[in-house]
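Tutorial sheet, problem 5. The two components below are modelled jointly, 465 residues in total.
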Amino acid sequence: MKPPPFSYHDPRTTADVVGLLTSLDNVKLLAGGQSLMPMLNMRYVLPDHVIDLNRVDGLSYIREQNGALEIGAMTRQRDIEFSDLVRQRCPLMHGAIVQVGHRQTRNRGTLGGSLCHLDPAAELVSVAAALNAKVSVTGKSGSRNIDFSDFPVAYMTPALELDELLTGVTFPCWPAGHGHAFVEFSRRHGDFAIVAAAALIAEDKAGKVTRASLTLGGLGPAPIRASDVERALIGETIEEKRLRDICEPLGKLDAVDDIHAPASYRQHLATVLARRALLKAHQRITTRTAS
Amino acid sequence: MSETRTIAITVNGTRREETVPVRLTLADFLRHQLGLTGTHLGCEHGVCGACTILFDGHSTRSCLMLAVQADGHDIMTVEGIAPDGKTLHPLQEAFRDNHGLQCGFCTPGILTTLIELLRDNPDPTEEDIRIGISGNLCRCTGYHNIVLAALDAAKRLRQAPDTDPTTPSRNGRG
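Model answer (structure tokens):
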């Protein structure tokens, strides 16, 4: 047998999960299993207890509330991919999710699992950063919300206490007609990106940028918002040559060196993919608002 | 010894009750406990796609699930595609006629993946097929005939409705 021995728990309620998390040591939460199961099969993790979240009620939903999309932690990536609401209200997420793994892994993989696994190049992690998402977590002392910018505390480490689980995520929607693009470079279709860029843009009637969000995943331990570029874009008219200048400083961002690519290559990708994403987002704008 | 549980599942239309160690993967359960060795194991960490089965009608890596998680669910393996022991399913005929098999190792995962793909998208483009099977690695690298077979199968299935071997999905999009 490949996975190491563990005790298996399949609670039905969030309260039961918190109870188990509070009373047990060395626990792993099993969501869609598309990352934890390989880690178990290869014995990278040796938990004494596995708590399976797949039978917990109430963690799978996609709904619109107060101009934001609320998505349950156990919502399958497949359900996000085929959701009309997501496609209409959060097209960036739709564009990103079709680049997450393959159909067979999206059928099982979940939003919450991806965010808590927190691979620095994972598409959904960059989407959450790009949209200023808030994650809702529940533990023994109740529920709290965490700004996604505070969620990664270290490489693949979310800001969750040992007794807490992620229950849902709120993604503020941008106004209808905004521009969006999720662009990534990977060696094979379905792989984690070496570098990914997520761009969101709104423009006024004259075509000048009124709001911009640019996120780069895969450079460091967590995706980063290129806030200098976001600020520099305000008031600009998007045009390729100008974008080249604005994105050039991204080539100086800190980047990791590893078996997949040297840091210098990642820095080069950051400038190129940011430019492509911003240009594509600009081209997709269908509504220019009065300034 | 490992903790065990008794599960009730439907495999290729037959309901079964089995006792399994909780750490047993669904793939190993199908192969070793049920003897359904048509489901192949290549990488055992979700990359190669050889172990793909249909879980409640959706293509799923069986190496990335525990057998206990299948309790109460419906599974179809490559053995469940043909309508009976003598007749091939149109998808299988198309693979035979187009030389879509080479060594055959990746074939079970590709067939189960295509059952879902062609059910959801009966008239796919070549690109749809290539993206659809991009999570299935063929070490013979002979994707050309696999794609031809899939396109041919789509044509045959459009002319022969009611050949979907999967049961209707119980949750989510069917």
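Marking note: The longest helix of chain A spans residues 263-284. Full credit if you identified this.
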